[in-house]
Amino acid sequence: MNIVIFGPPGAGKGTQSKFIVERFNMYQLSTGEFLRKEMSKNTSIGKKISSVINSGSLVSDKIVSDLIEKIISDKQYQNRIIFDGYPRNLNQAKNLDNLLQRYKQKIHIVLKLSVSLETIKKRISERRSLEKRIDDVEEIAIKRYKTYEKSTEPVIEYYKKLNLLKVIDGENTINQINKEISDIISLI
């Protein structure tokens, strides 16, 4: 089974994805982690990514698509991928469908962690003291939240029309969210 997990930056996608990986033996394809890894290498692409993220914008579809295809085409990950942070717009969603189809796969369920901007700001201020991340600056976080909301709205509608969307209350505790996600996945 392939899963897409949505939520604004700071919603807990990474935390929930790790839980799903462990519980259901899946592979987490986290575009955020991939991009942060490139930035830390300080390569020319890493510098471009850093500049885009620091401005509060999203990285180009081409860069992200190339990474995704490498994973989808690898037989060891077939039908056991959780897409964390992708797709972020309608073009990416359609591109993902095409890539999956090319490798005889599909999306089985789409999870959306619904979280308010106030909760995101609170979580980011808490996370800042635990783990330094370049995107943990409140004004960048607010801009990224608004960019996320605007760009993913058509994607959410796209998956909703395909009857794949399940909305999760991301305001709950980590354990409550884990349980709700687990119950949903177990029904597939």
Structure description:
This protein is α/β, with parallel strands linked by helices. It is built from eight helices and five strands, in the order βαβαααβαβααβα. The protein has a single domain, classed as P-loop containing nucleotide triphosphate hydrolases (Rossmann fold), CATH 3.40.50.300. The chain has helices at 13-24, 31-41, 44-54, 61-72, 90-102, 117-128, 138-161, 174-186; strands spanning 3-6, 27-30, 81-84, 109-114, 165-169. α2 (31-41) packs across α3 (44-54), α4 runs parallel beside α5 and α6 (117-128) packs across α7. The longest helix is centred in the last third of the chain and has 24 residues, at 138-161.
CATH superfamily: P-loop containing nucleotide triphosphate hydrolases
Q: CATH topology, anyone?
A: Rossmann fold
Mean pLDDT: 88
N-to-C terminal Cα separation, in Å?
8 Å
Q: Stretches where pLDDT falls below 50 for ≥5 residues?
A: none
Helix share bin:
55-70%
| CATH level-1 class | Alpha Beta
How many DSSP helices? 8
**Apparent shape:** globular
Strand line-up in the sheet with most strands: 2-3-1-4-5
What key attributes describe this structure?
single chain, 188 residues, alpha/beta, Rossmann fold, 8 helices, globular
Task: Itemize the secondary structure elements and their pairings.
Blueprint: E1 3-6, H1 13-24, E2 27-30, H2 31-41, H3 44-54, H4 61-72, E3 81-84, H5 90-102, E4 109-114, H6 117-128, H7 138-161, E5 165-169, H8 174-186
Parallel strand pairs: 1-3, 1-4, 2-3, 4-5
Helix pairs in contact: 1-8, 2-3, 4-5, 6-7
